[in-house]
Amino acid sequence: MFGLKDKIALVTGGNGGIGLGMARGLGQAGSTVIIVGRNAEKSAAALRELQSLGVRAESLACDVSREDAVQELFAQVQARHGRLDILVNNAGSTIRKPPQDFTLDDWHQVMDVNLTSAFLCSRAAYPLMKAAGAGKIINIGSILSIFGAPYAPAYCASKGGIVQFTKSLATAWAKDGIQANAVLPGWIDTELTVGARNQVAGLNERVLARTPAGRWGTPQDLAGIAVFLASAASDFVTGAAIPVDGGYSVS
Q: Which residues are catalytic?
């Protein structure tokens, strides 16, 4: 039920952090994993790690906020594999400033990477999944899809948008056998959150005090939910937004 043998999975931002954690899980469950990122050196290191675990993995470079680049990316996937079974829209970035200090360029930069890329990749994946009569789309939101943060207006807006965008995909494409769900990671120990801990005074202490699990999450904590949402085990789950946060959002 949870096996992914012979499946093709594409993970944007798959060369580090949560994306790489999910790529490991998907690959170890049997899928061929295509990791997508802009940093060639980082992607090469991630590819070596996955292959050392026995995962069938490939790496493709793409700026997923650009329409032309996304079209070329999915043309390569189709040419190489002729199909795509699983799409993880994980690419993400943030700029930490209060709303009054945001420039329009700041706003667009975050929204384009976090939200527009999910639209572009999902739209490009749709014909491949429709032709197969099945597909799994996993969009990465955040607990800031639920909560606000004074230093992250664009990030919060983009991650709230991910949840509503996921619901739209779920309702539009259910008839095609495609399920779309969102994962809302809590405070996970990644490069992105190292920056937050350095810039936001007291954040580490507040996170630990509120999280019932008593720790920050790790990228590997997201592997299981990725396998579940990518597998036949979740065929009747669509449009959901699932926190993976050690209990932070319910405490």
A: 155
